[in-house]
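Researcher: Can you fold this with pyridoxal-5'-phosphate in place?
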Amino acid sequence: MAPVVAAVEPFTSLLKRLQPQDDGLGDDTGSTDVKPMKAHRRESDPAAALAAARHEFGEYGGVNMSIEASITFTVMEPDTMRRLFAGELGPERDDLYIYSRHFNPTVLALGRQIAVLEGTEAAYCTASGMSAISSVLMQLVGAGGHVVASHCLYGGTHALLSSFLPRTSGVSTTFVDTDDEAAVRAAVWPGETKVVYVETMSNPTLAVADIPMLVRLAHEAGAKLVVDNTFTPLVVSPARLGADVVVHSVSKFISGGADIIAGAICGPASLVNSMMDLQDGALMLLGPTMNAKVASELAGRLPHLPLRMQEHSRRAGEFATRMRRLGLRVTYPGLPDHPHHDRLRTMGNPGYGAGGMLCVDMGTEARANLLMHHLQNSTHFGLMAVSLGYYETLMSCSGNSTSSEIAPDDRARAGISPGLIRVSVGYNGTLEQRWAQFERALAFVQQEIPDAGAGKPCNAV
Ligand SMILES: Cc1ncc(COP(=O)(O)O)c(C=O)c1O
């Protein structure tokens, strides 16, 4: 394997091809690798940016790109191999590839589209969201380093920061309410904090991070702001607001099919280059590579992601409003009294609403379970399943599932109550059909527990 990774050098030039179309305004970062996005491009609609990106055609003129399934690539002359390994030849300049853990044309084409979507110079597609998150953190933080993270994160990320990285790399994390500017400042270890880490919209409490404020605090501390944008593709573009790195669980909304596990790291070309370094690049050495067939599948789903997000958001907004009218304790950032409603409106991209996730707090786990039981088994409103971004509605009780890695006290501090049902609102069927199913399920619950669902509207995050 050693000679293969020696070919890291061509990646720099490859990334020049990965950037969105040059706007001709030049470079304002001093980077010699790739030119950065300019301000007006940062403000553009991500769907428009996607549509303006280079269309990848198939080998025979097919309207879809071909799948390059090979993991290894041949050359015509022995000396070409030497030159590839020496970095004299590479994918961009010469359309020459070596090995697919390194560069694969199909996976790179998907990465280019995801970079355009998020408005970053480059993106690298990985085998899962967790591999994207763990690789970035290991790369940016390093042994013994420090992270300031939101106290409300996906349970797997929380466990990575609170258990795995401390054990394997001596990395420590201070979890704080990242809305509290003073708390974030106080949590910084001068000179040692390398990353401030948040989710744009927190899993599962749907708190919306103040990204411009966190960019400022992270940069004052000499750290990078890394944002998990899994819940809000298109709704918010963190890199356009100044975030240094955006990570995704592509398994969710971006895929939309609940049939693929995948991830992405979006950021400067220099970061992706460093992660491909022969000696200490986390992507190169941990190898969480995406398969080319998976990349091809996902590339076919990106063009309708904007439409899907709009419909997820429209239905979630409508259901949240109606649930609120029924007196349910519903949390949805699109509701005007959500504490981060105005923040989301300021930060968000116009036309994509407030996202497809909402939460209903039934007070106790037993009530939450009863409602989910009727919603799935009596009225077929949705499915009891973790994950999100599927065309069917998915429901889970976060406290005993995707946030169960977080200790009960920390869950309580983060606002994850035992009766909290996280709902990923789907878009199949008609809205009125689904709403009737919801109301019937709630009526069943109220027959069995008369005061279920009664209670003050609550948007505590
Ligand atoms: C916000 C968030 N980030 C990351 C992940 C991990 O992604 P994956 O399952 O693709 O590894 C998840 C999974 O649920 C998630 O909800």
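Model: Folded with pyridoxal-5'-phosphate in place. The chain is about 40% helix and 10% strand.
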